Give the backbone structure.
Amino acid sequence: MSTVYLNGAFVPKSEAKVSVEDRGFLLGDGVYEVASFYEGVPLCMDRHMARLERSLAALRIDFDVEGIDGVLRELVSRNGLDTAERSLVYLQITRGAAPRTHYFPTEPVEPTIYAYAASWSRPPQDAWDRGFRAITVPDRRWMRVDIKTILLLPNGMAYQDALEAGVDDAILVRDGVAIEGTHQNFWGVFDGRAVTHPESNLILAGITRGVVLEVADELGIPVEQRAIQVEELQHADELFFTGTTGEVRPCVEVDGSKIGNGRTGPVTHALSEGFLRRVARMKEAATAATP
């Protein structure tokens, strides 16, 4: 039975209970983070904590994140995932339980803190080499996508559209711009240059996105941060997504049209391999630091 973390205690998942008056349940009033672990070593935990602090501040949820990274590490260990090739921790913080109102509680409320750990796996190499397919759908999200809130219904509807279309993901389009995937950042490759949407209120600046930007710089791959018009997609050499549980994920077809030669391209390959080398170095450094 898996162990979860709830409001200061590690408990069996079957025993975890949250109030029906929790504002996360009633109003989607909360934020979350998903951090990846490789053989028990977290990737960029400091960046996740920094983003969590920004999200909490944006929603004016009063919670000190100090020590939470240790909780997440402990959760991985308690669930026997220290040696798992890949695992993740999901952390959610809501404003807490209070009578349902459209304004914040007038009296102090203790936030609800919930986290769980699970393993995940990368697609088989042959499937990754073949690449994945997507459709374009309207971006129905609110205007503060940069806050990592738990209110993900528009994302879920878009992903369901993709599943019902028989493809792997959806590309969210706003005002003619291909902005993001349903749960990952979106990239194109044009004449050897990797292009991704600049940071703004319209995208969530992914932790993996940041790492891939650094990897591209290391490899000498030119990068441009600009809006990608949806009409450009058919002329792209390559497309891919980046995310915590996708790493670098190639996209070889959009709306039934082949991208490039219809296979995972060289820039996507290079960035993926560079990302995995970064992970390997991280694990080596953690091993070296262990007494």
Summary: The radius of gyration is 20 Å. The chain is about 30% helix and 30% strand.
